[in-house]
Amino acid sequence: MRVVTSQEGAVTVIKPLGPMVSGELDDIDKNLFKYFNNWTKRIVINMSEVVFIDSAGLELLVHHHRQFNSHGLELKICSLNEMMQKILSLTRLSRRFESYPDSATAIRSFL
């Protein structure tokens, strides 16, 4: 899986390209770990290009969300398609993540 990152002011936007499934998570894991180690305070994961996520992808999101929160950093997600919204709802992870309809709204939420 490829990952595109961009800086929108003080917010880092990470955009995975493709399904977040076991065996394809190294790039996003490395990107999130890199920003955690640099103490980047505001991260948005733009899920607009993620068509599917399996349990390994969910575990990765939960792990990094927990790490960021435990150190006072913020990790939010945006642009979930209908299937992704259902998966997060069924697993009750929608309660854990701040989710926004698009990256602009997610970025503004940090203000």
Describe the structure.
The protein is α/β, with parallel strands linked by helices. The chain has a single domain (2-108), classed as STAS domain (Transcription Regulator spoIIAA), CATH 3.30.750.24. Helices cover 39% and strands 23% of the residues. The protein has helices at 26-37, 55-70, 82-90, 103-108; strands spanning 2-8, 11-17, 42-46, 74-78, 99-100. Strand 3, helix 2 and strand 4 (74-78) form a beta-alpha-beta unit. Helix 1 (26-37) packs parallel to helix 2 (55-70). The longest helix has 16 residues, at 55-70. It is globular and about 30 Å long.
Summarize the structure.
This protein has helices at 26-37, 55-70, 82-90, 103-108; strands at 2-8, 11-17, 42-46, 74-78, 99-100. It has 111 residues and is α/β, with parallel strands linked by helices.
Domain module count: 1
Instruction: Give unreliable regions as ranges.
Output: none
Q: Which series of helices and strands comes N to C? A: EEHEHEHEH
Assign the CATH class.
Alpha Beta
* Mean model confidence by pLDDT: 93
Fraction of residues in helix? 25-40%
Let me know the largest β-sheet: 5 strands, mixed
Number of strand segments: 5
Architecture, according to CATH? 2-Layer Sandwich
What share of the residues does DSSP label as strand, in percent? 15-25%
Structural class: alpha/beta
Separation, N- and C-terminal Cα atoms: 31 Å
- Number of helical segments with 4 or more residues: 4
How many whole angstroms does the radius of gyration measure?
A: 13 Å
Q: What is the assigned CATH homologous superfamily?
A: STAS domain
